[in-house]
């Protein structure tokens, strides 16, 4: 009697995630710490100087957190209403923030009461920042104005009223102390020079602008609004370099890593996307529980802080790299130890002893070997196999069909077993690798259990699901065939045009030769 041959399970290639250096790097952040704030977090800003504390603006408070603290180490709460956009100065000693009542407060990080209060705006101030000379503040307001303030005298230097909608974001140039940029809900980004009385450049983003970012070199500008993140070349007059559309909802915040080689964007779709600034392709992404309003990365890239609409602050720290001063390496066996005997060729007088390999059969193979078709099918209809390795279930069904025992294995089942069988077929019949086998199985099930249709609501529901799945697949196939017909027509037209052009060129060439010969 011939030895039993196990069922051959068709192996299909799996489209696994590509592991890159970026994937390994960004996965190096530990499990996040979550801190609950009093309201939606509209701004997170890291101090540029050690120990790199960060300011969180939420509701009517500004909380200062240490890098590893879960409780605020300092709180500024001298606001009548909501506070917005708390931002550190470059030396980390001063903090400026806007408010709902239109005033701007300047705080000393080591104190509590405001050092200065700037009055002049008539509506909520959502944008506050320092120019790189450290002695001037720029602001943007819902009254459509962008102002410049002098810190020592607490007076207004100049006011620009060029936007036609709320001014909600902005940034200052680190290269030129007179240049700052504002973004507005009027779909424009404007570049201002404090030495002029009007903007020097206007860029049309196309959607309400939620965030802007200037590269450290000052040559590239990034704007975010709608689902788009756009990169502009400032030195070429605001030329669009690339438009990215990787989010499904509005992009709300942007930030760069310390080297400027990675750009991060947060969105209301609960994702943070990380782009390479050389290719502008997504190299990694983080998924969060709710919509994201603010995002910040510490100066040394050790901490990622994300603020969400539900008031939760999500903090991730990089795992510290353990470096031992005197690492003691275990002595590894020599290379010859591993390859010893592998290349030995037996001689003519040698007697070779082969160790018999014991073949372990699976449960369904044992049942098939003993011709228990129904039990073999039951073995592969268990939930772990159906969910994780459906190719095994389909392979056993194909083997039963080859033997001619599939109909008998499908017959004689109770309501629960038929429900399980129909659930699997309805779910997997649309997969191209399983369709040929499962269509036959579905046909047999329909023939066998047609007389009992209407006796069980559960089985009837599964039959309807199967019908719906097959109907949708047929509609998709018809649409694809229509598209294929259109493409064939287009390709045929292009081929005819190409042949016609070649014939015309050949005829022109022949005519020229004839005329040349006539002249001779």
From TrEMBL:
Superkingdom per UniProt: Eukaryota
Biological processes per GO annotation: positive regulation of transcription by RNA polymerase I; rRNA processing
UniProt-annotated location(s): Nucleus, Nucleolus
Segments forming domain U3 small nucleolar RNA-associated protein 15 C-terminal: 344-490
WD repeats: 118-159, 244-285
Pfam families recorded: UTP15_C, WD40
Alphabetically ordered keywords of this record: Nucleus, Repeat, rRNA processing, WD repeat
Protein's UniProt keywords contain Nucleus: yes
A GO CC annotation given for this chain: nucleolus
Signal peptide limits: none
PANTHER family per record: U3 SMALL NUCLEOLAR RNA-ASSOCIATED PROTEIN 15 HOMOLOG, UTP15 U3 SMALL NUCLEOLAR RNA-ASSOCIATED PROTEIN 15 FAMILY MEMBER
Function: Ribosome biogenesis factor. Involved in nucleolar processing of pre-18S ribosomal RNA. Required for optimal pre-ribosomal RNA transcription by RNA polymerase I. Part of the small subunit (SSU) processome, first precursor of the small eukaryotic ribosomal subunit. During the assembly of the SSU processome in the nucleolus, many ribosome biogenesis factors, an RNA chaperone and ribosomal proteins associate with the nascent pre-rRNA and work in concert to generate RNA folding, modifications, rearrangements and cleavage as well as targeted degradation of pre-ribosomal RNA by the RNA exosome.
Name assigned to this protein: U3 small nucleolar RNA-associated protein 15 homolog
Provenance organism: Nicator chloris
